[in-house]
Inverse folding.
């Protein structure tokens, strides 16, 4: 795959400027751009600037409100019930997590649920905000259907990711995962490349095992651990859909195809102030000891290093900040076209 | 397997009386007995009265304090930091969840972390307390090591289960799961029965795939979804071990073998008052719709009904409450011996 080396700060500025051209304020556009570019830095390209064309179309058609201002509708010392006001999901998510952290500093813990929101990018972005300030962060979102409840072959729940992050003396430890064995993107890619896929990734429309990605890309993703992953996806749907007052799985409007109906995606966020439990300094010592112990364990055949959750992504961030992001020619081209269309300077190398 | 039909209320009373004979107060002994018998009612026999002999030995040796009174050490509107005072884990867990729920009624949400505790039985017991009062409950615990961080073949994290439960118009929907593909008990059972086990359950001490349960029972359990399940187990360890100020995986003393050193297990609990989000009545309607929609989806070949998490367990509870619990002759015999030893009347049929 042909790639171009791109400077992350210039890339962030480009995305910010593009979104401002659709009426977003400087601050909100920054939050969105920072989330997307952070995904590219971390190597999670599926949630990065490769989605800019779609985000821009959603802003342009006003199916997402560029000027939506999230609003707290109910507030208690440990809770926030928030209307995302159909803003970009990153704007609603950033607002919710920021407020959660403020309140957790007072109350020990705060849990926020957001409705009337949109695709919020990479879940880890929010949890790392908390970890960087000495707190534990949790985030989750629902999404259009891709997974079936256990026993069914028909999609209902989204690939509902969740993330949790904790501070360490160095970089946060961060889990960001979906309850499916793989992302649908992997199956679509295998179809493009003409490769077989292993059994256990996806079932066809009748619920039969499927190793042909041409069929599998229209099938239903399989959850990790069978009923366990299915259960996690159902509960994420319950928290982000029902508790948050948003839409549930099949009632969420399509991100790529529907430019008329707002998605009404829901999210939840949760922040805990470590100082109000064991204390931050004891926590950091405890984590340091745990990580050292884990890294010293016997390795499975072929393993060269035992990584903590999010450690590979943290290393990539550092590398790519220094050396640039290797961007596929096709994404580069999409951004160039957007820059031309919106008359924004295109200097990202 | 030979079984005896046992009356659940009589069984609960027997367990309560036995524990009172070791100095537990009436109320605490009731909470423990109720948790254990509820596991047997639900069909989770591994966490039921089959453990009574061990719990009694732990009380008798005073490695668990029969009179330990859990104590809140730090308290904020949304948080509780609790010393379990080496009481039975069920006593500490019940205290923590009860207080969490009280505070969530005021603050919207409360998160509790407990240290210096013990094996707390079935995680779902606590979350269903919350669901039965119109709240969402979450619980998790750490445990002695059985799982390796991804990339290692050496045990570190416990089979750390977590549970989440929500109310419905009928019975709660409840997920209670460990991040391993199967419980170690399944492998030990296969060894007893001389059966092979499928690849993917466990690895041997060198980290190689293992289908021989004789080897596997001394191996390391595999997590669901590879690094995903491993990540969940690590974060449960971080919350229940480090944040809660308790011991971490390999530093937790053994439940079956060590009667000198308190386990210092940690738990976390979390309660959310639905009324402070979408509202309970809207929530119950939303759940009803979601469940109806899921149950109406196309079924995979061989599936007769799509079950919600915990639904099978709820049905079993109702059946066994009415018809009795089918108890294995060996567990029955263990209880008979305990009753004799402690001079407690043995009438449980």
């Amino acid at each position: 795959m042909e790639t171009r080396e791109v400077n992350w700060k210039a890339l962030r500025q480009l995305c910010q400027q593009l979104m401002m051209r659709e009426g977003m304020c400087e601050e909100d556009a920054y939050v969105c751009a920072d989330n997307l570019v952070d995904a590219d830095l971390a190597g999670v390209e599926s949630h990065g600037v490769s989605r800019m064309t779609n985000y821009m179309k959603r802003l342009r058609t006003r199916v997402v409100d560029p000027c939506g201002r999230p609003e707290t509708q109910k507030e208690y010392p440990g809770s926030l019930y928030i209307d995302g006001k159909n803003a970009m999901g990153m704007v609603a998510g950033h607002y919710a997590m920021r407020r959660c952290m403020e309140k957790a500093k007072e109350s020990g813990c705060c849990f926020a649920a957001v409705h009337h929101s949109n695709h919020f990018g990479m879940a880890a972005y929010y949890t790392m905000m908390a970890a960087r300030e000495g707190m534990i962060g949790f985030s989750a979102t629902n999404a259009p259907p891709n997974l079936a409840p256990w026993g069914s072959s028909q999609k209902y729940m989204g690939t509902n990711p969740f993330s949790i992050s904790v501070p360490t003396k160095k970089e946060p430890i961060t889990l960001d995962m979906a309850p499916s064995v793989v992302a649908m993107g992997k199956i679509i890619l295998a179809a493009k490349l003409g490769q077989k896929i292993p059994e256990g990734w996806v079932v066809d429309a009748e619920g039969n095992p499927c190793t042909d990605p041409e069929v599998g890309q229209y099938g239903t993703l399989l959850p990790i651990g069978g009923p366990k992953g299915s259960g996690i996806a159902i509960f994420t749907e319950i928290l982000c859909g029902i508790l948050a007052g948003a839409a549930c799985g099949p009632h969420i409007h399509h991100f790529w195809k529907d430019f008329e109906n707002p998605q009404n995606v829901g999210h939840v966020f949760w922040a805990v102030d470590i100082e109000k439990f064991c204390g931050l300094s004891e926590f950091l010592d405890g984590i340091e000891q745990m990580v050292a112990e884990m890294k010293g364990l016997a390795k499975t055949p072929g393993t060269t290093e035992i990584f903590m959750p999010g450690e590979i992504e943290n290393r990539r961030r550092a590398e790519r900040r220094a050396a640039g992001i290797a961007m596929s020619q096709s994404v580069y081209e999409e951004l160039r076209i957007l820059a031309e269309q919106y008359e924004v300077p295109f200097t990202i190398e």
Observations:
- The longest helix of chain A spans residues 89-107.
- Chain A touches chain B through 83 residues (CB under 8 Å).
